[in-house]
Structure formats: C-alpha cells, structure tokens
Fold this sequence. Notes:
The chain is built from three helices and two strands.
Amino acid sequence: MNVESTTDRRRFFKLVSASAAGIALLATLPRRAWAALPHLSIENSPTAKSLHYVEDDTKAVAPHQPGQDCAACVHYQGKPGDEYGPCAIFPGFDVKAKGWCAAFQKKA
Ligand code: SF4
C-alpha cells in the first residue's frame, strides 16, 4: 500500500468529517442568526424617508390607522414573533415588525 495515498485518504476523510460537523452546526442556528440585514431607517434609505417609515407605528403619520404595523402588512416577510424581518418594498434591509410606512397594505 502506498503511504502517501493512505495519508491523503485520511486527510480527505478528516476534511469531510469537519465539513459535515460545520454544516450540522449551521443547521442548528436560527434562520435569522445568519441572514440578518441592516435595519431600515430614514437615514439609510431615501425611499424610507419619502414613505415616512417609522420603527414605532404609534408615531406614524396619516394615513396610518391604529393596528397597522409591518407585521400586519402584506409586504412583510418576517416570521411571527420576529422583532425584524425583510420587506418586499425595501430589499436589502430588515424592517421592524412594529414599524410602519405609507406603502402599508393589510394582509388578506
Ligand atoms: S411596506 Fe409594509 S412591511 Fe414594508 S415597511 Fe411599509 S408597512 Fe412595513
């Protein structure tokens, strides 16, 4: 048996084992832990400013209605209970579940 090929095989199997352990570890992380995006604000998005985005819907301007927040909006893509989540109107950002903007549309 060739000593070099045996060593290469051992290295290969160690690498495979380490990779499998890494993948298993990633699978245990909450989805949002590695997918979090920057939080939207009127400072980092001119669109957010023009749509009067706020992180606290109780401070929103008209035409905001009580009970309207990002978690209740059709564009919100976060999971129930998440503090922040993606929004279809603001790609590349997370919006606050308790936020609001003038593009709000109630979920069906
Ligand atoms: S479109 Fe909806 S989910 Fe997105 S920021 Fe505005 S109110 Fe929130």
